[in-house]
Design a protein that fits this description.
Largest sheet: 2 strands, antiparallel
Helix content: 40-55%
Order of helices and strands: HHEEHH
Number of strands: 2
Structural class: mainly alpha
Strand order of the largest sheet: 1-2
Radius of gyration: 14 Å
Length: 73
């Protein structure tokens, strides 16, 4: 039996569109945060125009760090 592998379960990197859908954000926000180093991302290519890729595991870890529980105490 074949197993269907979706982008959310595969180990392949997400495109900016897929990462934006996963986070519920705009693609421009995702790429801006990637350029600024705020969101974990991997640039492909050289020069000004890079192709950004994102790993779901890294995004999940980044989200886990971005809690406001310390502020609530």
């Amino acid at each position: 039996m074949l197993e269907v592998v979706s982008p959310s379960t595969s180990k392949r990197p997400l495109t900016p569109v897929e990462a934006a859908e996963y986070l519920g954000l705009d693609v421009k926000t995702i790429t801006r945060w990637a350029r600024q180093g705020y969101l974990p991302a991997h640039p492909l290519g050289e020069g000004k125009r890079k192709f950004w890729r994102f790993y779901k595991q890294e995004i999940d870890a980044w989200l886990a760090e971005k809690t406001n529980q310390a502020d609530a105490a």
